[in-house]
């Protein structure tokens, strides 16, 4: 799990970052059945969306800082 999180820092594709983040949270839901009841609430969905945007923005800034370029190529 930790390896997946660290390896996703170096992925230069926003969609792959989104996919790895989503899979991490879905695996968390699948393996923790007691917490899954709490996670089915509106508050968890809101926290999930906010944390996802924070994670993506951090990874974009981290990638840009390390490589001096932009992730999104037009």
The strand count comes to: 0
From the alpha-carbon coordinates, what is the Rg to the nearest angstrom? 14 Å
Proportion of residues in β-strands = under 5%
Percentage of helical residues?
over 70%
Largest β sheet strand count, sense and barrel closure: none
User: Uncertain regions: pLDDT < 50 for 5+ in a row?
Assistant: none
Distance between the termini: 32 Å
Number of helices: 4
* Average pLDDT number: 63
Number of domains in the coordinates? 1
Write the layout of secondary structure elements.
Layout: H1 2-7, H2 14-31, H3 33-39, H4 42-67
Explain what this protein looks like in three dimensions.
The structure is a single chain. The protein is mainly alpha-helical and about 70 residues long. The chain has one domain (about 15-65). Helix content is about 75%, strand content about 0%. The chain is built from four helices and no strands. The protein has helices at about 1-5, 15-30, 35-40, 40-65. Helix 2 (about 15-30) packs across helix 3 and helix 2 crosses helix 4. The longest helix is centred in the C-terminal third of the chain and has 26 residues, at about 40-65. About 5% of the residues are buried. The mean pLDDT is about 65.
């Amino acid at each position: 799990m930790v390896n997946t999180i660290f390896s996703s820092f170096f992925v230069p594709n926003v969609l792959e970052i989104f996919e790895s983040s989503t899979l991490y949270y879905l695996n968390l839901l699948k393996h923790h059945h007691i917490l899954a009841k709490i996670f089915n609430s509106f508050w968890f969905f809101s926290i999930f969306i906010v944390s996802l945007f924070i994670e993506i923005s951090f990874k974009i800034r981290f990638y840009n800082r390390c490589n001096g370029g932009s992730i999104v190529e037009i």
